[in-house]
C-alpha cells in the first residue's frame, strides 16, 4: 500500500503532457512476417520422423497441415508476405497499441521508461488470433472444412474458434480439464463462435479413454490435449490440426507484434534496452522478441531479452535441451527443444497457457545460442505484480501476462537500485477478464504456489527418447 499511497498523492497534472499511446495507422501495418531462421548463426536442428528418426519430409506433415503452412514451417526466407484476406481481418484490431506506463513508473519510483505492447485488444482478448487467422485462411484455401486443436487457458481455443467462424470452418477444441473447469466463460465464448469445446482427457479419443482408465480424475495437460486433437485429425483426410504455439509457422505469424513495436518505439524516440515476454510454448515471446533479435543479429542495436516462465513449469530454466515428442501419446515428430519430458503433467496453476512440457524449438535454439536469458517466478508473486499494474495502468492482465509484468517490474526496480534510465519493453499478451476466479482466489488468500513433483519430473526426463542425431 505504501507504493500506491505515494502514487495517489502525486499531482495528476504531471501526466498531462507526456504521451501515453503510440498508434500506427492501418496503412502502416506490416505487410510481411519476419522469420528469425534467416539470421541465425547456426541452423535449427532437424525435425525427426517419430518412426524412422530421419528428418521429416513435407509429405510427412500433410496429414496434419495444408502445404502452405508446411512450406512456412521449413522455409528460411527472411520475409513472408501476409495475404490480403489475412490483413483485412487483422484490420479489426491491428495495428495494436503501444503504451508508455507512466503511472507504473511513478508508483515504482524508477528512472526506467516502461513500455508495453498490448495484444488484449483483439476480439479474442489475446495475441493468439495473429496466427489463428492465417491458419484458418490457409486451411480454407486448401479446401479444409474441419479443424481440431487443443487449448490450455482458452485463449488459443477462443482465437481459432473466432477464425473458424470467419472462414466457415468447423472447430473442435480439446481444453485441458483443469482450465476447462477453472474458466467456463472461455468455453462459452468458443461456443458463441460456433466451436465445440471438450474437456481433455476425454472419452472422444482412444488416447483420452486410456488416460482416464488409468486416472479418472486426471487434470489434463497440453501434451494430452494435443494427442487427442492429432488423433482425430489423422483419422479423417478432410480434417486438419492447428497448433497455437511452438511451431515455426506460428512464431512467424506472431512476429507482427515485434515488427509493429519497432515502428512504435521509433515514434517514441526510444529503443528498448530490455525486452520481456512470458513463455509457455513460446509464441508471444517470439512475437515481441524475434524481430528485435534479428535486428541485432544483422548488426543493429542490441537489446537484452528476458523470457519469464512459471516456476511450477520451468521449461527453460529447469528442462533439458533434447529431442522429445510434442505430445504425450508420441504421435508428433521429434523436435529438439527445452523439455520437461512429454509425460510430465504440470501442477494446476492458473496460467494455463504456460502449462506445456516443451518450449518452441526455435526459442530453445535461440536460448542455446545465448540470444536471451530466462527466469522463473511463482504464481502469487506474478498475481501481486498484475494487481499493482492494474491499479496503475487500468488493465487487468491474464495470469500468463502477469509473468511478463513481474519480469518488467523487477527490471524497473533494478534500474532504480542502479540509478539507470533504461528503456523496458514488454508484451502484455492478453487481458484477464475471463480469469477473475483466479483473482478472487488470490484476494481470498487461497491461491497457492504449486510445486512440481521432482520425482515425476525425473521420471519424465528419464523417459526421453533415445535419438541418434
UniProtKB/TrEMBL annotation:
EC number: 4.2.1.20
Coiled coil: none
SUPFAM superfamilies: Tryptophan synthase beta subunit-like PLP-dependent enzymes
A Gene Ontology term for the protein's cellular component: cytoplasm
GO molecular function: L-serine hydro-lyase (adding indole, L-tryptophan-forming) activity; pyridoxal phosphate binding; tryptophan synthase activity
EC main group: lyase
Cofactor needs: pyridoxal 5'-phosphate
Alphabetic keyword roster: Amino-acid biosynthesis, Aromatic amino acid biosynthesis, Lyase, Pyridoxal phosphate, Tryptophan biosynthesis
Domain Tryptophan synthase beta chain-like PALP, chain residue ranges per copy: 92-430
Reactions the enzyme catalyzes: (1S,2R)-1-C-(indol-3-yl)glycerol 3-phosphate + L-serine = D-glyceraldehyde 3-phosphate + L-tryptophan + H2O
Record-linked InterPro entries: Trp_synth_b-like, Trp_synth_b_CS, Trp_synth_beta/beta-like, TrpB-like_PALP, TrpB-like_PALP_sf
Source organism superkingdom: Bacteria
NCBIfam families, per database record: PRK12391.1, trpB_rel
HAMAP family in UniProt: Trp_synth_beta
Similarity comment: Belongs to the TrpB family.
PANTHER family: TRYPTOPHAN SYNTHASE, TRYPTOPHAN SYNTHASE-RELATED
Complexes and interactors: Tetramer of two alpha and two beta chains.
Protein name: Tryptophan synthase beta chain
Organism: Marinobacter salsuginis
Lineage start: Bacteria, Pseudomonadati, Pseudomonadota, Gammaproteobacteria, Pseudomonadales
Amino acid at each position: 500500500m505504501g507504493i500506491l499511497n505515494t502514487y495517489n498523492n502525486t499531482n495528476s497534472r504531471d501526466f498531462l503532457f507526456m504521451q501515453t499511446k503510440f498508434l500506427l495507422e492501418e496503412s502502416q501495418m506490416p505487410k510481411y512476417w519476419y522469420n528469425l531462421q534467416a539470421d541465425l548463426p547456426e541452423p535449427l536442428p532437424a525435425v525427426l520422423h517419430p518412426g524412422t528418426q530421419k528428418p521429416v519430409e513435407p509429405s510427412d506433415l500433410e496429414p496434419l497441415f495444408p502445404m502452405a503452412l508446411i512450406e512456412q514451417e521449413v522455409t528460411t526466407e527472411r520475409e513472408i508476405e501476409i495475404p490480403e484476406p489475412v490483413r483485412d481481418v487483422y484490420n479489426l484490431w491491428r495495428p495494436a497499441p503501444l503504451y508508455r506506463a507512466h503511472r507504473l513508473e511513478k508508483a515504482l519510483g524508477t528512472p526506467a521508461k516502461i513500455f508495453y505492447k498490448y495484444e488484449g485488444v483483439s476480439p479474442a482478448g489475446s495475441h493468439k488470433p495473429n496466427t489463428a487467422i492465417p491458419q484458418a485462411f490457409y486451411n480454407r484455401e486448401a479446401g479444409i472444412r474441419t479443424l481440431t486443436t487443443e487449448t490450455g487457458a482458452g485463449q488459443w481455443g477462443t482465437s481459432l474458434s473466432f477464425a473458424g467462424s470467419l472462414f466457415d470452418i468447423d472447430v473442435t477444441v480439446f481444453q485441458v480439464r483443469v482450465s476447462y473447469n477453472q474458466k467456463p466463460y472461455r468455453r462459452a465464448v468458443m461456443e458463441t463462435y460456433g466451436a465445440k469445446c471438450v474437456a481433455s482427457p476425454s472419452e472422444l479419443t482412444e488416447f483420452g479413454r486410456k488416460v482416464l482408465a488409468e486416472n479418472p480424475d486426471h487434470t489434463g495437460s497440453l501434451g494430452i490435449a494435443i494427442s487427442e486433437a492429432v488423433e482425430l485429425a489423422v483419422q479423417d483426410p478432410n480434417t486438419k490440426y492447428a497448433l497455437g504455439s511452438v511451431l515455426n509457422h506460428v512464431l512467424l505469424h506472431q512476429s507482427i507484434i515485434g515488427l509493429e513495436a519497432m515502428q512504435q518505439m521509433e515514434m517514441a524516440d526510444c529503443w528498448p534496452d530490455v525486452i520481456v515476454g512470458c513463455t509457455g510454448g513460446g509464441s508471444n515471446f517470439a512475437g515481441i522478441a524475434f524481430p528485435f533479435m534479428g535486428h541485432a543479429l544483422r548488426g543493429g542495436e542490441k537489446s537484452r531479452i528476458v523470457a519469464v516462465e512459471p516456476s511450477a513449469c520451468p521449461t527453460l530454466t529447469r528442462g533439458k535441451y533434447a529431442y522429445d515428442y510434442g505430445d504425450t501419446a508420441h504421435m508428433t515428430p521429434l523436435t529438439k527443444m527445452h523439455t520437461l519430458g512429454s509425460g510430465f503433467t504440470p501442477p494446476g496453476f492458473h496460467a494455463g497457457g504456460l502449462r506445456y512440457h516443451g518450449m518452441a524449438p526455435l526459442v530453445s535454439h535461440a536460448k542455446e545460442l545465448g540470444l536471451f536469458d530466462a527466469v522463473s517466478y511463482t504464481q502469487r508473486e506474478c498475481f501481486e505484480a498484475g494487481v499493482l499494474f492494474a491499479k496503475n495502468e487500468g488493465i487487468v492482465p491474464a495470469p500468463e501476462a502477469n509473468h511478463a509484468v513481474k519480469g518488467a517490474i523487477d527490471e524497473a526496480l533494478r534500474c532504480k537500485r542502479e540509478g539507470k534510465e533504461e528503456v523496458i519493453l514488454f508484451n502484455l499478451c492478453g487481458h484477464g477478464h475471463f480469469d477473475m476466479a483466479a483473482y478472487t482466489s488470490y484476494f481470498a488468500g487461497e491461491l497457492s504456489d504449486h510445486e512440481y513433483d521432482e520425482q515425476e519430473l525425473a521420471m519424465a526426463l528419464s523417459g526421453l527418447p533415445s535419438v541418434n542425431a
